[in-house]
What we know:
By secondary structure, the protein is an alpha/beta fold. The protein is built from ten helices and 13 strands. The protein has two domains: 2-58, no CATH class; 77-274, Rossmann fold (3-Layer(aba) Sandwich), CATH 3.40.50.150.
Amino acid sequence: MIKSTLRALVDTVDGRGGRSVLAGLANGIVKVAGRDQKFSVDSEGDWVNAQDGASFVSPDILFTKLSDKQAEIRDLWCYQHDVQAGDVIVDVGAGIGDEAVVFSKMVGPTGRVIAIEAHPHTFRCLKKTIAQSGLKNVTAIHCAVADAEGTLTIEDSADQNHISHSIMKSSASGVEVPAHRLDTILKREKITDLAMLKMNIEGAERLAIKGMRKDDYSIRHYAISCHDFVADRDGTDELRTREEVLKHFGDMGLKIEQRLGDPRPWVRDYVYAKEVRG
């Protein structure tokens, strides 16, 4: 009820000129509901959702509670895998950093999170989330992860939700961003033992996995969000990657897990894999 009420307010009032008024209304609603969130708009027009343990900064108003995000990550990204203190996690498609906040707490001060985001505005919010949440063990990197070094174009539509920007779909409006192979990033960051690779990049996983030669590092656990369900719904075949990812991991000799019986179509498109160690 709270979320739907706030969303209705956003649709009516949102915009650079009306966001401060909307933030005040949102604060009144969450106060009545007894929630610890506090909404504000910063000097660049980005939304800040501050609460105990985290501050999420986003281009769009984000109602997420930290406890809900923690439960979501345990369900979606840590399926049959326990993150340990001291682990190194690479978060490809980190978005505004809400998941990086949770990963940061999971790995603790002796661990490390590499948060990679391609879209420049979303990356700006990612850096703010990291700073305002006090995440000392998170490194933010602005680039697309692909099969070659260079530049790529990512969608940049003002009326599109920031979580769905993709380098795989043609768009009338787009912005050039740097592109790197994962190998290049890990070598630069001096990472040789990666506990988990999380990837949610709207179809670009087909490029990213081709750029992983793994000459100088190991990855113990993979969690890849494919988007075939979007292709089924919208006919955007650029996002149909699940079988390609499954074949790639099979060729690598990894043990693969899926959740094909889950009632949620997007969860059925997750691919999990791990190294088989003797």
